[in-house]
Amino acid sequence: MRRLLPLLLVQALARHPALAQPEPVKFGHIDSQLLTAAPFVADSAAEAVVLCDYGTASIPNGGEVRFDRITRIKILKKSGLDWGNFEALLRHDQPGHAERLTNVQGFTYNLVNGKVEQMPLQATTGVLLKKSELYSLQRFALPHVRVGSVVEFRYTLYSNYLSNFRGWDFQRSIPVRWSEYRAAFPHQFNYKILLQTKQALAVDEHAGAEALVSTHRWAMRDVPPLRAEPFMTTTADYVDKVFFELASYGGTDVARSWEKIDEFLLHDWELGQQLDHFNFLKDDLARLPPPTPDNTLQRLAAVRALVVQAVKCTGEFSMRTSTPLRKIYQQTHQGNTAEVNFLLVAALRGAGFAANPVLLSTRAHGRVRATMPELGQFNYVAAHVPLPDGQALVLDATDPLLPYDMLPERCLNQQGRVIGGSAAASRWVELKPRHRRTHLQQVQLRLAPDGALSGQVHEEFGGYAGAQQRASLQAAGDKKFAADVAKFLPGWTVTGFALTNRDSVHMPLALDYAVAQFAPASAPVGTIYLSPLQYFGPERNPFRAETRQFPVDFGYVREETIVVNLTLPAGYALAETPKSKALDLPDNGGRFVCSTTATGAAVQLTSRLLLRKPIYSAAEYATLRELYRQLLEKQAERLVVKKLG
Amino acid sequence: MKAFISLLAALPLTSFLLHPAAPAPKYAVADIPAALREGAHAVLRADDEVITVKSAGRLVHTVHRVVTVLDAAGDDQGRQMVSYDALRTLSYLRGAVYDADGRLLHQLRPAEIHDQGMGDAGGSFMTDVRVRYADLRQPQTPYTVEFEYEIVSDNTLFYPDWQPQEVEGGAVQSATLRVLTPAALPLRYQERQLPAGSKVVHTSTSGQETYLWQLANLPAVEEEEDAPPLSYTTPAVVLAPGTFEVQGHKGSAATWQGLGQWSYALNAGRDQLPPATVAKVQALVKDAPDARTKAQRIYEMLQGSTRYISVQLGLGGWQTFPASSVATNGYGDCKALSNYTTALLAAAGVPAYVALVGAGADQPDLRADFPSSQFNHAIVCVPLAQAGRPDTLWLECTSQTEAFGYMGSFTGNRHALLVTPDGGKLVATPRYGAAENRLTRRVDLTLDATGGVTATARTLRTGQEQDGYAQLMHQMGPVEQKKYVTDRLKLPTFTLTKFNLAAAPAKAAPGIVETLGLSLPGFAAPSGKRVFINPNLLSRLPALPAQVGERHTPVWLTDACLHADTVRLHLPAGFRPETLPAPVQLSTPYGVYSSQYQNLPDGSVQYIRRLELKRGQLPASAYSGYIDFRRKISAADKVQVVLLKTES
Description:
The structure holds 2 protein chains of 2 kinds. Chain A is of the alpha+beta class.
């Protein structure tokens, strides 16, 4: 029966309309029109254009996925010459698993004296590079690639990673004229099809649902290039693509429900066993204060501190441990993110908390879809602890510079999956930041009659701002850090730098320093103009692009406050007190307030910005940008200080 | 079994019963002299390096390094990375980590050493360079790491350099370099920045020469602004071979002539072009009036028909692919494209040479007084003459867009080694000074009564001033260009209404014209009766951070340039300037600056700014003057024009 299957498949394939369509590109044959400039007048912004990207995937013999690709690209600018290189990534990260590349061919087409010149890829130019134990790269360079060339290549890749049937990105960083993918699934492989698209599919055909092989065909026409924007998670969250997930194999459900994944994790990883083997922690845990009704949080903080002090995180993101937790704790004192946080879960359990691992995906790794039970969506593990009041905390021990209850910024990605002691106990949790990003500047300034300014600055970086500043401080050392702070105040002399709460990470990091600014070259006569808030506020609008395609994803609430107490020289007063200003974003999204009060020689200026939403939609971008514009305008407003009498 | 493990785990870690042979503590932090901890993030406790020259073609380099990491800023020193390739084998890499008291915490195991191919890194299409690295960083500082490794090198063109103090914030307690070489292969070395009294100890015994250098108790160093790189300020011994042999290719590095001779011989005979290519070249230059025109046509052909792909495998790091392979594939690395270009020029009857150079905008010039392989790039030199005077032409062959004959900040202002049939000749590449490196800008600012501003700016950049913009123009699409410029304009909120980059007509140095249209809503909002506006919208030069403590290193000002700005400020009806800022004129050894304002008859205000920065290497004492110069420029650049609403 097994031997018969391939033949049956071939016959089945031929009958299915989705695959019976002619190929969208004829490899090795080109229309000479494509070698002229005429068809590309509308592509002046592009360095190259994908004319056709065509892939097919099938499982011809039941044991391997066969993936074929033909790509044809027009080179439009010298900066696009590198599109004449291509590479294939070959994974070998699991025992018994391998991928291999065959049937590599390529051509470069040039128009030489009105004639099409076709140059073949030299097979010997392909270089295989073993990058690491996990994967290799095979790279190729096509010959005689110039502006105006059309390059094309094809290859076949065999892979026995069956659970990971290759998906397809329709979108690239350059425009794509036509992108098509065809997949044939033998009936015993039941794949779930998942689409992430912003624009309509040009082709969406399916056939053979009840047959030996089901066939599928998707295509997109004229796909615009995808570009990253500031304050976003990753472009992978927005690329137009189709991808798959193996739902069942030969009638057996292959663990593609969340409950199945939970069970898989609990058993196959033997995670449960390690997490409950916390005897090696017993002595250290015994030194913690015994639990009382009101010291739960202190005890949580103490358990986390125990792990943080014992183990350094290498920075490698992982969901697996390769070294036993005991060894990490007692010998290497080093671990990847999973090892550190599994140790945290074990220590929390050892201290009597009902802690569990929570799977999540870092911001750079992309958004998690609850509708898609797929382990590959995650790349990170933290610890989840229920609290007596019915609330819960997500803890992380990879960064000693964070307060115990602060999730690293990279983890602020909507939701995670708690893996409970039993599959039934597993569930989704919101990864809501418990901290804001706050920056407070309190400035005492004294104005001299010649226009010189001097005073004292007190800054506090709270929440995520504190975490960022502590990281800079740690990397730079005190002296360089102070110099970097001074760089934000060009034209000022900064002295007497002092830091408070450096190691009290649950408190805002506080900086105190003296500032002084020389009198202007031409001494003012009678009237002095100055914009005190502008010295300490932002120099530029953080939203420089006029338009926005994707949401602005800060991850947390932001708050920026500047208070300047200005003392005028004796015999001087404000000519006029500037008007107060308050601006609100729609939907209670944020607020900017700026005010000036004057009592004799004492002038107080206050600027406060609150952005209440961690995420703003692209539609809200214009109002966000305008809010900042008005903030900068208001902070730049001049005070007119006049000599009395 | 299970119970047994629990029992072991419950025992105290330091139990003598379990470790009867616990090693004696070493490298305790307490043994570091206080002076070495001052300003240090890490202290090199010991660096013992031995270089054994086995033969002209082989040397063995063993390293034993012990570093105490004092705080997290020194954590990078807790890792060790060793690179190797087809010609250099890593025999072993070992490591251990100790706590503050010098007790062994953990011994590195082979499974904890990572191995990675660097083949696709750093713009390279493929190289055979790989790295092994180990990470022994600890959660608590201070801690001490110890690494040992040995490299067997069959690439004796390069002898390892010795510079123990290679990072900022690193102090050195003890370091030694021992070189053993057969008397027949005498060592060439140069001592740099060695402390007074440090002298080489040279001994000879039965045909074996031994050299020994020692350094001790060097306090931590700090990198300063506008300073030479650390490699120019901390103690070093640089080594080079006399005679050497790589893959059977023998040579001498004792002179530039000899080094060039080796390179010439290694690449000899690789300049044969297919007859079709020769014919093409001859047809191309048939009617060209002179050698320069021939070279220009050939350069244009090269740029239009080849591209740069870097493949460095084994000896291929030094030996070029044959010219015929470039003709076949239409691509090559710097050596292959330079070799191909000299072959094309030869076919046209224009003699030219490949030249080796240490390229990079931040790369200081090579050490002319110490012949050795200090190169990372190849270019082409065409010795031409005009009216009896040399008018040498230089060609960058890896760029499809570089201007004909232009080197820029990548390969200009330095020495290169010509590879000729008679051997190497050290020559200077073109210098680019204030005459070439110019920025000329004309801005029209139009203010409306509500404080909105629109601006148009035309900027001509030439010479090194245009290097970055040339890349921007050629390497990025219009959308990325606009984003790049938008991200760098230091303006509060604005919209780019117009943007264009275009090549300026060819002159002595290449130029690029940038045209900007800007809209700045509320940029100069009225405060009562007055409007404040800084006409220097685009050319403000920031001040330098104030010097904290004493300046230790010399001042290196690497680029010379001349900037000239003219701004017209057009006022709305009902406004007049209240006062115009006073002119500023600064003349210093670092440069010259002037700014002036003028009321024009049509009611507009004209602002003219001129800034010339000079190239120079000045003593540390000159830094305070330089800071002052930059502070005064910054203050003048920020001055506001005050406009008054007239009563009407």
